[in-house]
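REQUEST FORM: STRUCTURE PREDICTION
Request ID: SP-0412
Submitted by: Lab K.M.
Chain count: 1
Length (residues): 716
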Amino acid sequence: MVGVADVPPSPPVSDPPGHPSLSSTLAAVLDDLHALSGAIYLLSSREPVLEMTVMAGLPRVFASPWERVSLGSSMPVSDALRERRLVWVGGEVEMAHRYPRIAAVLPYPFCLAALPLATDDTAYGAVFVTWPQTHAPQLSDRERHHLDAACDRLVSRLERAAAEHRPVGPEPDVLPPPAEAEVSDPSGALAAVRTAARLPYGLCGLDLHGRITFANRAAGELLGIPAAELPGALLWAATPWLNDPGYEDRYRAALLTRQVTTFVALRPPGSWLSFRFYPGDDGLSLRIAPSESASRDKRGGRADTVDPTRQVGGRRLVTIGHVLNLAGALTQAVGVEDVVQLIADEIAPAVGSQGLMMLGTHAGRLHILGHRGFPDDAAVERWNGTPLTAPIPSARVLATGAPAFFESPEQLERLYPRRTPTSDGMAAWACLPLIASGRAVGTWVLAYTQPHAFPADERAVLTSLSGLIAQALERALLYDAKHRLAHGLQQALLPPSLPSLPGLETAARYLPATQGMEIGGDFYDVMPTQDRAVAAIGDVQGHNVTAAGLMGQIRTAVRAYTTVGQGPGEVMRSTNRLLIDLRTDLFASCVYLSIDRERERMLLARAGHPPPLLRRPDGRVRVLDLAGGPLLGIQESAVYPTVEVAFPRGAVLLLYTDGLIESPEVDLDDALGELAERLAGDPVEPMDALADRLLGRGAAGGERLDDVALLLLRAV
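STATUS: Completed
RESULT:
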């Protein structure tokens, strides 16, 4: 908490009878901080989802794409609760960088703060508050104190409600009261109306929802509707030629930014009108006037306006907001599992679904790609392998290309009597085909635990999302196929296991880069000869199929040159000439060594590769920065000198590729020193455990810009 001396202590927690306990606190916070809007989310008791309980300051439709937010998603309120910290977004640019899906739906300049509602051991939810862009770049100490105090009050109320087993449900949204319509002198009010009537331009009052509260006669004449019919109507619904997202966007921008916004629209057949919104806390004033400049530009062919013939019906804000938000989520998916998880985390909670099943097609049958939320996994898995001709909804929607919605088990039973409607424990279903590039790639099924109506706008959203999901799934299937191919190729090129050699213990690890196809040109090998043991490690430039193929050729060549009895320096020279003859324009680094166990010595040759590390029996680590030659594939006449080094019993040699130590934010010498410190450990530590520990920040769960190969040899 941040304490400020001039802020009075928080009042004691009390819930006046019949007064909403959360909405009143939220409204007080907005008033104290001169904030624009805010909302409180509570964590669902049934699933890891945050549900909006109350919103204040703006119509809820502005935040409708985020009515339900997965706790695991990247959103300000979920980040705040999951990480138990304040999340501050200081403006439009920062929002686009950190939360691009919010910026896509609300591309306006505003600031946002999100805070958790939680104790040390219990998570209740989160709250967010927004300000216009005119707010300072950071929260002040006073604002932070007020927010912390409000969160404490909210948590206290939630704790008490939980102790009393009293559910806390959705509460009425808090909007500013309308401006005073009455004046102490009735004649003054009448004079104001008469004054507005005499104006040569149209004047309208709008509430926060966009409904017209007042219109003068000129406004009716310009819009082509009697002024007496305008109050109570939505501007967009009253005038079909204004029923366009581009025009409504200006209304949203005015409310969110508290700045004057304008647009020009064509009233058919040829009248251009200028609209200017003047926002306030309780609504907007709208000025409408003929636009002579737009008319001139139109005659010159330069009018830059939204096409007025486009019309989107009904709850357009909800529909477009959901599609933009959830489409942004799908762009983050890579593999099929990513697509399934994102739909389960982002789309299913947003539309109130509790169950999800994704099915693909192969060889004329349905195959389950993933499922979430069903109470009985076995009941879902039995659909795996079902023929596409089977009389079930998932197969039928693929055959027809038309989605199917079942609002209750009885409705499903009536249409598909052979299917047991309650077999999966759900009570309503939406089955939608996934069609990409004119080809059916699968089906997705949303299931609900209670009967669920599917209104027209929700069906439109789900149908629109089906096309986006289909494209994401098609990309994911292709990625997974390439990944399996790459993984198989990589496994085939690397040794399946290391040979057991007398006097040596060995361990090896390989991790592909996490970018691209997760395949690369790093290799290692260990092989016996008649009187010695030979080991090599190398790195071909790049991490793609070409690099992997060349790596396989180099590894085979090294083995062949070793078999004919060449020493370390000769193997390097022969491999260098081979790489030049192949004319691949790729380079490779390599370390090759031959170990004489009887003499406890080893001969090393190095071609532009990071230096090996040698841990002596006493635990001290030495960097073998020995003389070597250039990278393989650069200079045909290159010479690779050999160096003899003692390798006594108990010593450990570490060979590695540069992916283990190189990182944009870490100095190379510092990284090498850190690696040497990790190597200087327990002398009896098992080799596999040592290999895993040495990977450190290059471990499987981290981000890797390059491949990592590691080979350990211990003399015993």
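NOTES: The mean pLDDT is 82.
Reviewed by: T.R.
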